[in-house]
């Protein structure tokens, strides 16, 4: 039988020849040549479909640029990991990473952006530390584990009231119809509840400064950023790797407390230091900058919002149609980022796990508080991956029919 050899792809200095029995990797004139059999084609060519809840999927091209910068950053013949954060080459990165947030949010110079270590969890403490006055109080909405943790920290710093909560029904919905007090120092919400898979579909017009933890849906859809006094987000879901947290604050809400501030906890210190009061998380900020640049160059938030809607529609439609699976939260509050669902029979779980593995689907195990499955569909997840998950769900249903 005549074997067919052909070139599959010729890009990035890679030539891949398929359909031969041999399996060789060699280089020629700077090209890496892989000769692989059809058997290995699947594992070689198709990437794992990464539905991880966080750290989550990043664009392939960003990962490539980031790995190049580890060896030779900005044509310096030095690694990004071994140069000063005060070098002009890196200051450029930090400036761009800060400016991109303002561009994507379409806000002006009344806002400041900076990147800190310590994760979004440190912001649970820094927000009240900077905004909560000694005699005032803060108003919180409790929509899940992360909101509860934010409330816990705020209570340590000062007076805090929970004005609405969905804890009564295992955080399976987003509370509505509550009144935002006019006398509180600020009002705190969590836009997307990563663990439960609920999302605020709209934001109230708040009479007091509105603060939002956007860790798991930042730049996934258009929001009117001017309605917020402060937005923070751990980078590791939608905008970068773990290790940096984005904070954007409107300057007029700062400086209202009389407490003596610890420098590292003081937003004004980080603003004055242009996000470099101390050594910033250099590499995570770089990768965040690349990811935000990727988003802007591909059409910005308007573009990704459409893509994210298509992905969510595809999966939720299948979840509703397929008798083997059921959603876990109020339909109107379903998150476009984290879709949670349960198998309709407990014994399906192990079987579907095995099938998902066959389809190279990774990271869909639900959080231990919810069980079942959670498919996280962050910005960088291609719609093709969602289609693969839907195909697996359909195939699973057939085996049960
Ligand atoms: C909505 C939300 N807020 C806060 C956090 C905590 O973030 P970090 O681990 O960066 O402290 C998470 C983590 O998953 C989250 O999903």
Task: Compose a concise summary of this entry.
The protein has 401 residues and is an alpha/beta fold. Helix content is 34%, strand content 20%. Among the domains are: 1-45, no CATH class; 64-297, Aspartate Aminotransferase, domain 2, CATH 3.40.640.
Keywords:
401 residues; alpha/beta; Aspartate Aminotransferase, domain 2; seven-stranded mixed β-sheet; four-stranded mixed β-sheet; 10 helices; 20% strand; binds pyridoxal-5'-phosphate
- Beta percentage is 15-25%
In helices, the fraction of residues equals 25-40%
Mean pLDDT: 92
Number of strands: 18
**CATH homologous superfamily of the domain at 64-297, by name?**
Type I PLP-dependent aspartate aminotransferase-like (Major domain)
What does this protein look like?
Among the domains are: 45 residues, no CATH class; 234 residues, 3-Layer(aba) Sandwich (Aspartate Aminotransferase, domain 2), CATH 3.40.640. Helix content is 34%, strand content 20%. The strands form five sheets. A seven-stranded mixed beta sheet has the order 6-14-13-12-9-7-8, sandwiched between helices. Strands 1-2-4-3 form a four-stranded mixed beta sheet, with no helix packed on it. It is flat and about 65 Å long. It starts with 5 loop residues before the first strand and ends with a helix. 40% of the residues are buried. The site of pyridoxal-5'-phosphate (PLP) has 11 residues, from α4. Pyridoxal-5'-phosphate binds next to α4.
